[in-house]
Write a structure and sequence with these properties.
407 residues; disordered N terminus; 0% strand; mainly alpha
Length: 407
């Protein structure tokens, strides 16, 4: 039934009001989860691609970095698109891109095609993150026991975590490890596409398409906290990026462990614990959250360096978990500052800038590690990288212990 105010709202906006039914919420959550799952599915398959296409470790890190740069480009160019044209069209495009990426991976026979698939995955992730989070906010009561932010966190980090584990299990059990995971990912993306097509538009207010990139903005009123949070979370993202790119290589060449499921498990733990850290930050005092995150990042770097030095898997699993929790705390602290202390008129640009920094940190160190592996070998490269992460985290921690000054 239409409300009396329906005629005063823009045409074509789901009867002039957001749809908030459980089916619509479920469809958006599933589409978000499926799209993000597809972005980490290649992780346990990189060693297989290396054998099939002659990938070097450096090539693998470049393939991963292409995805992260695709996310950054998508955030900067299309960050406001769902506000301009509506949530549903952007979600449809995002799930179409995810489906396209799965199909391109399915037919891939060389490096160039794999790179195309990774670009499509990066753009899909950039589009779905903002549009799905905004759609859930439109549809749900923020006072609900499980609010839209929590559901968005579950879909985002849950997809990143489960995609790599699912692909690893399929690669171990299926007869064709480079094809079967992408058939499953394609089916999941197609189901997500169908869901968002039938769920209806959730936004009643659209500003109209404007082809302008999202401007970068570091909020002056919280610049110190913003930069410290970005550097700490960025250090954690750098570890996530390297784990995603080279865990399979480490397990295969150092431990002689060929299980794709184990590779998926390491990265699953890292992303699942990142989600846990974002939930945990709510129970920490703001003054303690970032120091705790920095201390956790130093401990994680020490554990990962130990794994490289000793050639054992247990410290790697523990380091993945600790790094995930610490990264989640730093990420949650930074976003909390932006949303509660930043100027509302610049909030969207500040969030986009924050994530652009994080995804750049996800990509660039992975390439650096690839170069180090090419010049030395995997184990010393991992040890050097761990030392750099620890040093960056310590620098942020020391700055927090000193008297506050404007940056």
């Amino acid at each position: 039934m239409r409300r009396a105010t329906a005629d005063a709202t823009p045409p074509g906006t789901a009867a002039g009001r957001p749809r908030s039914g459980r089916l619509g919420v479920a469809c958006v959550v599933f589409a978000f989860w499926a799209t993000m799952a597809g972005t980490t599915a290649p992780t346990p398959l990189y060693p297989v691609y290396g054998e099939a296409f002659g990938f070097t470790p450096f090539t693998v890190t470049v393939v991963f970095a292409v995805y992260a740069f695709g996310v950054v480009a998508g955030l900067l160019v299309f960050g406001q698109l769902s506000d301009q044209v509506g949530r549903r069209p952007v979600l449809i495009v995002a799930t179409l891109l995810a489906l396209g990426a799965a199909l391109v991976f399915l037919i891939a026979r060389n490096l160039a095609v794999v790179l195309v698939a990774r670009v499509l995955s990066g753009l899909a992730a950039a589009l779905v993150t903002g549009a799905a989070t905004a759609s859930l906010t439109d549809r749900m009561d923020p006072r609900a026991r499980v609010g839209p932010a929590t559901l968005a966190l579950f879909a985002n980090m849950g997809g990143l975590a489960s995609g790599t584990l699912l692909a690893g299990i399929l690669a171990d059990l299926a007869p064709d490890p480079l094809r079967t995971p992408w058939v499953v990912m394609g089916v999941l993306s197609a189901a997500g596409l169908l869901g968002v097509m039938v769920s209806g538009e959730s936004s009643a207010h659209r500003s109209g398409f404007s082809p302008r990139p999202q401007p970068l903005h570091v909020p002056g009123e919280i610049r110190s906290d913003f930069l410290r949070s970005a550097m700490a979370a960025g250090a954690g993202f750098a570890v996530l990026g390297v784990l995603t790119a080279v865990t399979g290589l480490f397990l295969g060449t150092v431990l002689d462990e060929t299980s794709h499921s184990l590779t998926g498990l390491v990265v699953f733990i890292a992303f699942a614990c990142t989600a846990l850290g974002q939930l945990l930050v709510r129970s920490l005092k703001p003054s303690r959250a970032l120091p705790a995150a920095c201390a956790g990042l130093v401990a994680a770097a020490a554990l990962i360096a130990t794994a490289m030095f000793t050639g054992t898997a247990a410290p790697l699993l523990a380091g993945s978990a600790v790094n995930g929790v610490a990264t989640g705390v730093a990420l949650g602290h930074g976003l909390g500052n932006i949303t509660t202390r930043g100027e509302p008129e610049h909030r969207g640009a500040s969030v986009s800038t924050f994530f652009a920094i994080l995804y750049t940190m996800l990509a660039v160190p992975a390439i650096g590690v690839g170069v180090l592996i090419r010049e030395t070998s995997l184990r010393p490269a991992g040890e050097i990288f761990s030392a750099v992460v620890a040093a960056l985290s310590l620098a942020v921690l020391i700055s927090l212990l000193r008297p506050r000054r404007a940056w």
